[in-house]
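Sanity check record (used in CI):
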Amino acid sequence: SPEDMSRSENDRPLLINRIDEEEEERAYDDTEKVHIVRDEDDNERDLEYGVGCGGAPPFSWRKLWLFTGPGFLMSIAFLDPGNLEGDLQAGAVAGYSLLWLLMWATAMGLLVQLLSARLGVATGRHLAELCREEYPTWAGMVLWVMAELALIGSDIQEVIGSAIAIKILTNGLLPLWAGVIITALDCFVFLFLENYGIRKLEAVFAVLIGTMAVAFAWMFGQAKPSGSELLVGILVPKLSSRTIQKAVGVVGCIIMPHNVFLHSALVQSREVNKRQKYRVQEAINYYTIESTIALIVSFMINLFVTTVFAKGFYNTDLADSIGLVNAGQYLQDKYGGGLFPILYIWGIGLLAAGQSSTITGTYAGQFIMGGFLNFKMKKWLRALITRSCAIIPTIIVALVFDSSEATLDVLNEWLNVLQSIQIPFALIPLLCLVSKEQIMGSFKIGPFYQTIAWLVAALVIMINGYLLLEFFSSEVSGVIYTGFVTVFTASYGAFIVYLIARGINFTPWRFKAESYSSYVLVYKVLKMKNNLSPSAIVVDFNSSNNTQIEKKCSFFVLSE
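Expected output for Metal transporter Nramp3:
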């Protein structure tokens, strides 16, 4: 029978449910999740398509709409001011020749984000929580510190970008530090919107993404880039010695460490019956579609920015000096005013990018801190703490560097280095976790998918390693600095090797000894009587305390 044919598949673990789950910090409470309404004829269709045997229900536009949201919040990291600066510099220096790389870099980013979403849906936990549970305490704390540093570096760029936009739109009336303070208030806007539900928050982000799309599409229409050169740039790979550094930058800034943590938490905002394997598969399918659409939109916005600056500044004396601070004025000088001056159109798009990315940064900070430290505190307090970690250094930066474009560019390079350093500490744990049956059950990725994912991760890590090498070779001098960098590099490499080695010989938390001597995993598939689900239990046979066993053992829920 179909049930017998699928038994071996359905007897594999689907997800983890611990007895003490209610005592842990969770990404979303049950009352906050979006309810996925089932159609009236779902039961008949389930039987018709055999979804109880492991398949997924047929496609529904209504359900796609209900699952739409997390992917677009995730896509904002592809549109933050740091990425926009990379786009405009790539266009000015390399013209249309790196558009193919932008497209493939976005595809690589999509692959990583789909793995993050898969991990969150299949396990019911986000990446920060799993890192806390699956790694030793010392390693988990190192990963937490690295994630926080990456978030702070990204947040400084985003807040500065938003402050630059405010300065543009007020004709310089408000200095950079004032724009930083105004942008800092977005965490309270975020908390206010979150009280009205996740769908309202997602609607605000949709408006901000739409604002970016309209603003940069308007610029695209005003600049009128060459259609044939654009098409050739997308379809024909081309690199030169002059564009190699910008090419490396295009790939390096696509994958943001905090975004990998964020997406694995966002996907838990939907109510999914994790006791039914086909419902989990359905959620993964819809998130895949939604995330793909979201990143296609982000690619088009990035393409608009790149081609506008390629048209206006490629092969000009200004190409090497253009940056986020002076880009608006250069656009105004090149394309003039008109009914809606392009300077203000650029400012509006940049403001939307900065505001949306800083709010998602606040969101990511909550999940990272809550997941790694298992803090149970009020959301407003946690948002205030995570926002302060970025805003205080950003205000200092704004006061020190407000009068100098050159020093802001140097600061931006250092911040890019800071984030590049952190990338392996998000990618390696993600790939190790999503490849393990003990963690993912039947939703672990297969050998082919693993190979592609590790190749992409290796490529991104090597590219960012190249950036680091280039940067330190030009910026670091002197015996003391060289010695410090050498020690840091050795420690950094050793920790990466440790993460990879532990991924190969992985021992998840439910098999760790802790205070017990040995665990034996016993699968007991129960018959479907009295509405009992198939289940399994981890038992310590060496313990004489039955109460202790009952409290500390872990339960798996198997697919029906």
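The longest strand covers residues 13-18. If this sentence no longer matches the regenerated tokens, the check is flagged for review.
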